[in-house]
Amino acid sequence: MKKEHDELINGYQDKLSPKVLDEIRDNVPADVTKERLTRIMEAVYAVYSQAKICPGECVGLVSAESIGEPGTQMVLRTFHFAGVAEMNVTMGLPRLIEIFDGRKLISTPTMEIYFKKQYGKPEQVRKFAVEIKETVMHEVISDSTLDLLEQTIKIKVNEVLIKDLDLSVADVAKLIKSKIKHFSVNIEGNEIELAYTGKTEEMKEIHSVKEKIKEIKVRGLKRIKQVLPVKRGEEYIILTSGSNLKDVLVLEGVDVTRTTSNDIHEIRNTLGIEAARRAIIDEACKVIGAQGLNIDLRHIMLVADTMCMSGAVKGITRYGIVSEKASVLARASFETPLRHLINAALIGEKDKLSSVVENVMVNQPVPLGTGLPGLVTKMK
Amino acid sequence: MGKTFNVEAHHLVPKHTKLSDAETKKLFEKYNITSKELPKILDTDPVIESLGAKAGDVIKVNRASETAGETVYYREVVDE
C-alpha cells in the first residue's frame, strides 16, 4: 500500500467506521491507481450513507419486534440435567427475560474463573476450588447434642471431612470460640464440648446458639455454593454455582482480565456500567445463539444502551426504564395505569404530549418519521 | 477488604478517559447539546473512582464494537 493511498483512506476517518476502512485496506489490490481508489472510496461512502438509519426512524419499535418474534420460538422451560457434571444454567426465554428485566436476584448465578499461567496447573486449580467453596459448620459436623440440665452443647466433628479441608478439630473449636460468646470450649478427641458460662438460664438462648453454630462459615467465599474445575481448551478453569466476583478478583492467581460472572448487577457494582452494558450484550447473545436463532446485534446493543442510560442497570419493567419516561400517559399505558394516573393527579403533573404513545392516545400525529419535523412559518 | 484489583484491566471494561474543559465544550458544540442530554455514569462507578473524576465531568468511552470496529460514547458523571 502506497503512502498516498493510506492518506486517502485516512481522510475518510470521520465519515466511515474503522471496520469498513480496515476492510478496504485489506481488499484493495496494492497496484490500484489513485483515481480508482478515489472512486472506490466515494462509492463505499455512498452505500454507507444509504445504510444509515434516517432521523426519526422508530428504531426501538423495530428492535422490539426483531427480538420479540424469535423469542416466540424459544424454549419456555428451564432444563435440569441429572447426573451431568456440568452446572445447571437457566437458558432460553426465562434467562432472556431475566437479563432484560435487570433482575437483582437471578436464578442461577455462575462464574467462570480463569487463572494466570503460572497458577494454572491442575493441582493448583483444584486446591483453589476447595478453598473458595463456601463450607458451613453443619457440613463438617456429624452430630450435635444439647444437654439442657448441664447446659452444654456437644459437637461431633467429622474428621474425614475436615481433613480434606486441611483443618484440625482444634481449628474448628477456635472458630466456634471466636463466634460464640458466654461459652467455654473444651476438646475431647473429635468432640467439642461447649459449656454455658453466662448468668441467665435461658433455655431458648442455648437452643439458638446450637443453631447458630451450624451456620458458621468454616471456609470459602460467601455465596459460592458449588465449584467445578474443568478443562477448557488448553487451560483449567473453575465454574462456580453462586457468584461473588468482588471477592474472587482480589485473590492471588486469578486472571483479572477474563474472570466473569453472569450476574449483571454484580458486574455493574464491581466493574462499572460500561462493563455491565457489555455483559448484557454478551449474555443475551449467548442465550439467542444457544437457541439457534439469529437476531441482529444492533437490536441487542440498543436495548443494552437503553438499560444503562442512567448509570445504573435498569430493567425494561415498570420499575426500571419505563418509570423514567417523562409522560404520565406513556407510563400509564405500560402497566398499572390507575396507579400512575392517580399519583400524577396528586402532584399535578403535566403532560406535554411530546412522545409517541400519548399522541396515539389523543389521536394526534406521532413525532416519528415524517411526523417528526414541524413547519415553521417565517413571519415578516 | 483492603485488597484491590485493576478494574480497567478487565476485558469487559472499555477505555475511559476524562475530557478536558475545552474538549467538552467542543463536543457540546459539535452535537448542539448540553450535558443534560448525555447518558450518565455514577460517581460511585468503580472505573470513575479509579479515574478520580468528579460529578459534572464528561467521560469519553472507546468501545470495541462488532459492527463498527470502534465506537466512541460519552457519559456525564453524576452524583448517586
Q: How would you portray this structure in words?
A:
The complex is a heterodimer of chains A (380) and B (80). With 380 residues, chain A is an alpha+beta fold. Chain A folds into four domains: 3-51, no CATH class; 71-105 and 262-324, Orthogonal Bundle (PTS-regulatory domain, PRD); 135-219, Gyrase A, domain 2 (2-Layer Sandwich), CATH 3.30.1360.140; 328-371, DNA polymerase, domain 1 (Orthogonal Bundle), CATH 1.10.150.390. Helices cover 44% and strands 13% of the residues of chain A. Chain A has 17 helices and ten strands. Chain A has helices at residues 3-10, 18-27, 34-51, 59-71, 92-101, 122-132, 137-140, 159-164, 169-179, 203-214, 245-249, 264-271, 273-290, 297-307, 328-334, 337-347, 356-361; strands at 110-113, 135-136, 141-147, 152-157, 183-188, 191-196, 217-219, 226-232, 235-241, 260-261. A four-stranded antiparallel sheet of chain A has the order 8-9-1-10. In chain A, strands 3-4-6-5 form a four-stranded antiparallel sheet. A two-stranded antiparallel sheet of chain A has the order 2-7. In chain A, a hairpin with a 2-residue loop joins strand 8 (226-232) and strand 9 (235-241). In chain A, helix 4 packs across helix 14 (297-307), helix 13 (273-290) packs antiparallel against helix 14 (297-307) and helix 15 runs antiparallel to helix 16. The radius of gyration of chain A is 31 Å and the shape is flat. The model of chain A has no long low-confidence stretch (mean pLDDT 84). Chain B is α+β, with helices and mostly antiparallel strands and 80 residues long. Chain B has a domain at 30-80: Alpha-Beta Complex (Eukaryotic RPB6 RNA polymerase subunit). Helices cover 21% and strands 31% of the residues of chain B. Chain B has two helices and four strands; from the N terminus they run βαβαββ. In chain B, strands 1-3-4-2 form a four-stranded mixed sheet. The model of chain B has no long low-confidence stretch (mean pLDDT 89). The interface between A and B is medium-sized, with 34 and 34 residues.
